[in-house]
Amino acid sequence: MATYDKVYTVTSISHLIPIKLDLSKLNYPHWSKLFSVHYEGFEVGKFITTAPTPEELASATWRKSDAVVQTWIYSTISESLLERLLNSNSTSAFQAWSFLQKIFQDNKRSKTLELTAELCNVTIGDQTVEESFIQSTKLQHN
Fold first, then answer.
1. What is the pLDDT tens value at each position of the chain, 142 positions in all?
2. For the chain, is the Cβ count within 10 Å smaller at the N or the C terminus?
3. What is the pLDDT, as a whole number, of residue 22?
4. Strand boundaries in 12-138, DSSP class E
5. Rounded to a whole number, what is the distance in angstroms from the first to the last CA of the chain?
6. Is the dihedral of CA 133, 134, 137, 138 positive or negative?
7. CB atoms < 10 A from the CB of 29, how many?
8. Structural domain boundaries of the chain?
9. CB–CB of 94/47 below 8 Å?
10. Which residues contact 52 (CB under 8 A, 6 or more apart)?
11. Cβ proximity of 23 and 81 under 8 Å
């Protein structure tokens, strides 16, 4: 069984990650990049990227290290996301990370659809964006 001694040198990385993950700011790409730099540096990427095996779950050492990584996640997310995460009943850093990742991946799709619909409803004068585009294209070809 691998040991993860480096994980115990830092109990909170919130001072190393200057932004809090926040759904309203859509800052997941920046937050996850900064977070991954630290989990790789502390050699605990496995806790985030791989579901725990039954042997790991049975190991007190593994559970203790995983708990530290979970606290890293908790300390770097907004209060509203923390509440959602705690209500999700995730039991490992991997599950917590996956839960947050899913929220932001799902949100990206819905935000794209929302913005596309918003753009389609924008008017320029008395024309929609689409009508204005068609008219400007016709003018360019004449």
1. 466 777 777 767 888 899 999 988 889 999 999 999 988 888 889 999 999 999 999 999 999 999 999 999 999 999 999 999 999 989 999 999 999 999 888 666 656 656 666 676 666 667 776 676 677 666 666 6
2. C
3. 93
4. 123-124, 127-128
5. 73
6. negative
7. 10
8. 5-111
9. yes
10. 62, 66, 92, 94
11. yes
Tokens of 41: 């540096």
Cα–Cα–Cα angle for 30, 36, 41, nearest 5°?
135
What pLDDT score does 31 carry?
94
Alpha helix (H) ranges present in 88-125? 93-120
The structure tokens listed for 36 are 């991954």
Residue 77 phi, psi (nearest 5)? -125, 160
Tokens for 116?
Answer: 């596309």
